[in-house]
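Chapter review. Work through the record for DUF2383 domain-containing protein before attempting the end-of-chapter questions.
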Amino acid sequence: MKQLLRGTYIGISVFENLKEHLKSKELKEVFAQILDNFKTHERALAALVIAQHEEVPRDLGMQGKLSQLMQAIKSMTLTSDKEILSEALKALKMADDELKEFTERHYTLREDVEKTVRIMQDDYAGSYHTLHKFSIEFR
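Structure tokens for DUF2383 domain-containing protein:
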């Protein structure tokens, strides 16, 4: 659970960084909505960690910090909204893959955990679909 929460922290960091480089006001609004979803996921995952009587991690961890640094460097080279969309789509795909791996590693999930994971998967799919439509427009 803590790993999913740290992954969510990474997602928030990535999308905040990418949003700063966007030129399109409409895309900035879409990214803001995606960030709202991530923050909702963060709160839900934190509540699940607390329910397990564990301490909620408040940072990205070493791997997350390294990932954040690499993303910050990479985003400096992005020059167009099309390139930013491409990076955002990759990030959402990676997040969805992490959720799939989590569910494969944990064959039986508590009902509240399974519900949260499904909501996250649906949100990722919806965000991916929305951003993919924008990327088609930019072709």
